[in-house]
Amino acid sequence: MELTNLDKILVGESKFRKTQVEKAIYHDFTHDWDKVKELPKELRSKLNKHCSLDINATLFSSKDNLTNKALIVLKDNNAVETVLMRHSGGRNTLCVSCMIGCPMNCAFCATGVLGLTRELTTDEIIVQAIYFARLLKKEKQRINSVVFMGMGEPLLNYENVMAAIRLLQSPNGFNIGARHISISTCGILDGIKKISNEDLPLNLAISLHGSNDEVRRSLMPIAKGYTIAKLMQAVDEYIKKTNRKVMFEYLLISGVNDKNEHALELSKLIKNKLTFVNLIRYNPTGKFTPSSTKQMKKFKDILKNNGIPVTTRYRFGLDINGACGQLASIKK
Ligand code: SF4
Questions:
Q1: Known catalytic residue: 214?
Q2: Which CATH number characterizes residue 267's domain?
Q3: pLDDT tens-digit readout, 130-184
Q4: 152 within ligand 1 shell (Cβ under 6 A)
Q5: Among 81, 119, 124, 249, which one carries the catalytic annotation?
Q6: Is residue 1 part of a domain?
Q7: What's the rounded Cα separation, in Å, for the pair 311 and 326?
């Protein structure tokens, strides 16, 4: 898909015409300009020539077909992965990537191992949503929610991520309410502050994964610069400003961060905050062992008994390496 020439092609066109073009791409999800009959023939032929709507992608589906993963090849031949999770009742969540690789190097994450190749542009983020919106349209379904939990750290590609979010939530675009859009960060403090000043009620998720600095540092290099105390202060300020609930994501890794004392420590850390914990069983990326079902239950019970709201994340797409922490832009 090639939209970089779009502004140039539309120079001199009326606002009405531009809205028609945007609606065709981001709302009607057309894949062929010739089908957009409301546009004059001459404009359609220019768009055909300079603004291709083709997406070069390979689709992978899990055995239960609840998860689809697309490997999208970009203009410079870099590839990006994006994952669609199908919930019961016909609701669909899209997990998008915002970088090729990631500079944050979290020890449990296949993307982190790659290092950063480059950030994605707004168009390259949006093309992931367009690909799956087209696919779902054929099934008379739509994307209901979007999570920025794929490859990359969204708060380090702030401008492009926010521009993509504005298209996702626009009525002329995907028309997905901001309340159904979530950003997950490993803890970029100035980004958390910036997002609290946005006029959109987005959801914020924090990858915590450790109940103390020592454990967190062993898993996430960012914790060497930002202590948990500083992170909690940023979260408190975010909640004060937005009055929105924050999700703490917590991967459970056997023997590393899943002991009973960690659950107790975590409970104390976030007690009485407008937050909840989302427990995620570590998805194998080669380095660690996932917690046992028994220990996961124990960990959850300790949180619950200490008054902490807690949920467990369903493991989508494990058999196509599409689960949390497994995205690595490699054909599998
Ligand atoms: S978990 Fe997120 S921030 Fe950490 S390396 Fe992976 S993609 Fe980057």
A1: no
A2: 3.20.20.70
A3: 999 999 999 999 999 999 999 999 999 999 999 999 999 999 899 999 999 999 9
A4: yes
A5: 81
A6: no
A7: 21
